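Async update (no meeting this week)

Hi team, since we skipped the sync, here's where things stand on the single-chain job. The sequence we agreed to prioritize is pasted below, unchanged from the tracker. I ran it this morning and attached the output directly underneath so nobody has to dig for it. Comments welcome in thread, and please keep replies under the output.
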Amino acid sequence: MKKSTRIIATCFILILGVSLVIGGCQTSKKPVSPTPSEKPQVTNPTTSKYPQQTANRVTTEAAKVSGVKSAYTVISNRNIYI
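Output:
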């Protein structure tokens, strides 16, 4: 191989290696996550005794059914699960 071809090949490999090293070490650019505009409103479960009274009443009525030993009631929004 000629000396000039060897120098050109060495420079090409050197430039290729440097570009791969520099390109691989950069941090990835991620889009900025949007910040929530409003905080969700948290309701205090102890402010109203109505759901607890309703759950107790439904549990009592379910226990009156023949063949039922005990019952548990869960109230979620407008649904009552027995």
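Quick observations from my side:
The mean pLDDT is 81.
The beta strands are 74-76, 79-81.
Reply here if anything looks off.
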